[in-house]
Amino acid sequence: MAFDFEPRSAAFIADPYPALAQARAAAALFHSKALGGWVAAGFADCKALLKDPRLSADRMTPFFGHLAPSARDAVATLEAMMKRWAVFVDPPVHTRLRGLMNKAFSPRAIESLAPAIQARVDALIDGFEGRAQIDFIREFAYPLPACVIADLLGVPIADVDLLKRWSDDLGAFVLTARASPDKYVRAEAAAKEMQSYFDALVTARRAKPGTDAASWLIEAADAIAAMDGPELTATCVLLLFAGHETTTHLLGNGLWALLAHPAELARLRARIGDDAFVAGAVEEMLRWDGPSLAQVRIAREDIDWNGTKLQRGARVFLMLAGAARDPSNCEAPDRFDLSRAETPHLAFGYGIHFCIGAPLARLEARIAFQRLLARLPHLALVPGPLEWSDNLVVRGLHRLEIEIGVAAGGRAHA
Ligand code: HEM
Fold first, then answer.
1. Where are the domains of the chain?
2. DSSP state of 208
3. Around Cβ 247, how many Cβ atoms within 10 Å?
4. Distance from the alpha carbon of residue 267 to the mean position of ligand 1, in angstroms
5. Could you give the CA distance from residue 254 to residue 265 in angstroms, rounded to a whole number?
6. Sheet strand arrangement including 133-135
7. pLDDT in tens, 342-389
8. Ligand 1 binding site (Cβ under 6 Å of any ligand atom)
9. Which tens digits make up the pLDDT trace of 194-203?
10. Best substitution site from 84, 353, 355 to test ligand 1's pocket, by max atoms within 8 Å of Cβ?
11. What kind of fold does domain 27-403 have according to CATH?
């Protein structure tokens, strides 16, 4: 029998890498019945396909188009909003939206967030005081990106829980294949609430601009009348949404990798003041078992891919996690090794949709690991089963129980 993925099997969810290796060996592109589309898992193919203009990033039009009319009506706000997200549109609309988003993500703007990120990181670690054990996901990796994006967008920190809940409801819809009876209802409700929340934010910033990304975006958009109101709101929601779960899982998967490799953890501790080394370690975390499992594209026309015929409308799954472990592109790719000279990966995508938040995620992760390791000298995994999400786009842990080496009542400070 020909090889196929079983993306919902417990074995794949726990460890997709053996199946990804089989996929790479099977063919440059193979048809997966289970996924209902073509799969590429090698580095060179994923990279080339991500850059190929014959593939569209608009996977929302076919998705919403396949819904029954009543189901589609029930998610009308969501559809209108998501179809305006830069990540799901092609040029020329993408070029215009991306150009505007770039204004809010200049290297200077991101670098200027470093002190605020460090303050958020330290405040979360302060909260561990007196604790011997924490769930790293719930108590650190989950709240940190939410606070940082709130700072970036200029949203009051008091609203973070609300925004996080909306973002999670969208995530359950966008990212998971799991059927949950109310996921459409919740995602639509979240889209409506986010829309009115960000409409109000945009109105307030127009009246009184601040120094946040939302203000820069509005200023840039207004200056050349380049984004309409619904696009501005949708872009704010995209920024809020796109940086959450991914960054959470970079932190969670990264810490898990370190704790599972004590010699690498010791090596990182020894160089914790060396920004370049820690930044390199973050790249290895992204490569070895990062948060990006796959991205989807749609063939805009019939395509002949080195002899494999893709029909117009075919779905193509680019297995980014498979690309990162491709031995033709990386020496000993299954080894977690913080001192690699090169860490080739596609965790932030490639081509025109390359992640606009990559510099922010990298900065956040570097500061987070520097502060965590400096302030918590004894970290260890609490033995127990790991529960990975069943999500085909983003890979991450639901919980990560760790010992932080302080007796109850002690201080979690170095
Ligand atoms: C470790 C963390 C992150 C990972 C692994 C990640 C991954 C990705 C990937 C793979 C893409 C490309 C999607 C595609 O090709 O269809 C992407 C795009 C995007 N990401 Fe991220 N991301 C992260 C953090 C962030 C953050 C912090 C933000 C914003 C605050 C952000 C905002 C975006 C946006 C707006 C796009 C769409 C860009 C475009 O279409 O031009 N991401 N991200």
1. 27-403
2. S
3. 25
4. 29
5. 10
6. 133-135, 401-403, 380-381
7. 999 999 999 999 999 999 999 999 999 999 999 999 999 999 999 999
8. 57, 86-87, 98, 149, 238-239, 242-243, 246-247, 250, 291-292, 295, 347-349, 353, 355-357, 360-361
9. 999 988 888 8
10. 355
11. Cytochrome p450 (1.10.630)
